[in-house]
From TrEMBL:
Species: Lasiosphaeria ovina
PANTHER family for the chain: CYTOSOLIC IRON-SULFUR ASSEMBLY COMPONENT 2B, CYTOSOLIC IRON-SULFUR ASSEMBLY COMPONENT 2B-RELATED
Protein name per Swiss-Prot or TrEMBL: MIP18 family-like domain-containing protein
Statement: the UniProt record of this protein carries the keyword tRNA-binding: no
Superkingdom field: Eukaryota
Length: 202
């Protein structure tokens, strides 16, 4: 695509040092559930194996084992950000994190509770321009990335942030429609674009 054809030929780009990270925050309190691998990370700092979880901890005491599935620890907002911020933009040689399309404060993780047995992940996206013609594709890539990375006990909701896109209602309606999303991913051309965007993900 030629530069003159880009929706935003000169987007603002954040440096890697400006992107949110667990290391940069110095272990400050998180807004979502506990980290997925805290017990393993902390235990690896010491040679004393008494702090490691026992087989009983993993197999029984910390969660139900349904049909042989391993217990799944919850994920927080930073971990969701880490999963999707490295997705490549379809127009620019930058990631969604670098372009500030994905922002940590716009990610919310709601643990399962009395009303639902699903943990909900809500991601608000901010296109670089409010007339971005690829907003739906970006939303589709984010949703696909999360649905592939997270266990079935998570429900993913990806949308354009209110007022960030001239047609945010229309884009959000498409991203909420499971049948449209499934049909879009069956389109070879669109699927190739999404797969290309996800090549930069770890």
């Amino acid at each position: 695509m030629q530069k003159s054809e880009l929706d935003n030929a000169n987007p603002t780009i954040l440096s890697v040092s400006q992107l949110p990270s667990r290391r940069a925050t110095g272990g400050t309190a998180r807004h979502g559930p506990d980290s997925k691998y805290d017990y393993a990370a902390l235990a690896s700092l010491s040679s004393d194996t008494s702090s490691w979880p026992s087989d009983d901890d993993i197999d029984g005491d910390h969660g139900d084992d349904h049909d042989g599935e391993m217990w799944e620890a919850p994920v927080d907002e930073q971990e969701i950000y880490d999963l999707i911020s490295t997705i490549s933009d379809p127009e620019h040689p930058n990631t969604l994190g670098e372009l500030n399309v994905v922002r940590l404060p716009d990610i919310r993780v709601t643990p399962a509770g009395q009303r639902s047995n699903l943990t909900t992940v809500l991601v608000d996206l901010t296109p670089t321009v409010n007339h971005c013609s690829l907003a739906t594709v970006i939303g589709l890539a984010v949703r696909w990335r999360l649905e592939q990375a997270l266990p079935p006990s998570y429900r993913v909701d990806v949308r354009m942030k209110d007022g960030s896109h001239a047609q945010d209602d229309q884009v959000n309606k498409q991203l909420r429609d499971k049948e449209r999303v499934a049909a879009a991913l069956e389109n070879d051309t669109l699927r190739n674009v999404v797969d290309k965007m996800l090549e930069t993900c770890a």
